[in-house]
Amino acid sequence: MPFFQKTISRPLKLISGFFIVIFTLASFQSPITGQEQDRQIIEEIKELYNQFRYDEVIVLCQQALSADPPPTDQEQVYMYTHLAFAFIAIGNSEEAKGAFKSALDLRPNLSLDPIYVSPKIIAIFNEVKTEKDVYPRFPPFCGRAITPYYLRWRHAKAQ
Asked: CATH number, domain at 87?
């Protein structure tokens, strides 16, 4: 093989190999799944909240919560709590209570960390938690006996 054919064919082989690899990788990229999209939305909610752009947090949370398919329960709880935080920040505590109630419907044992959350927000959250009937309407049974947990709750409610 003459020298000029070797020098031309080798770069062409490298370039063609490079394009084959690029097109192969591009064909295997999957579209963004719903779960990845929800993670991106959560990151955007964090960013907007930290930038004090509460109106945008409210709009984004409401859009994400009404999306199809809906986010997971854990993501919904996160969105409802940040929706409540944003409502409190703009002075709308009634809407915040509704968001906290929705979060408590999904996770009745939800609590807020006082290290990271304002005492004002915790006070409204605790008010909602005490108003909300998170206990069962009928006593939980352990075999045939009523549990002490239910009896304490019933006694506290009677007072």
From this structure: 1.25.40.10
The reply to whether the predicted model has a pTM over 0.85 is no
**Does residue 143 lie in a domain region?**
yes
For residue 98, being part of any structural domain is answered with yes
- In SS3 terms, 81-137 reads as HHHHHHHHHCCCHHHHHHHHHHHHHHCCCCCCCCCCCCHHHHHHHHHHHHHCCCCCC
Over the stretch 75-94, which tens digit does the pLDDT of each residue have? 999 999 999 999 999 999 99
- The tokens for 96 are 């915040």
The sign one gets for the Cα dihedral 16, 18, 24, 30 is negative
* Token pair in block for residue 78: 């996160």
Count: domains in the chain: 1
Instruction: Give me the domain span that covers residue 86.
Output: 34-158
Report if residue 28 sits inside a domain.
no
52-56: long-range pairs with CB below 8 Å, 24+ = 52/89, 54/86, 54/89, 54/90, 55/86, 55/90
Joined tokens for residue 9: 């064919």
Return d(Cα 82, Cα 143) in angstroms, integer. 41
């960390």: which residue's tokens? 113
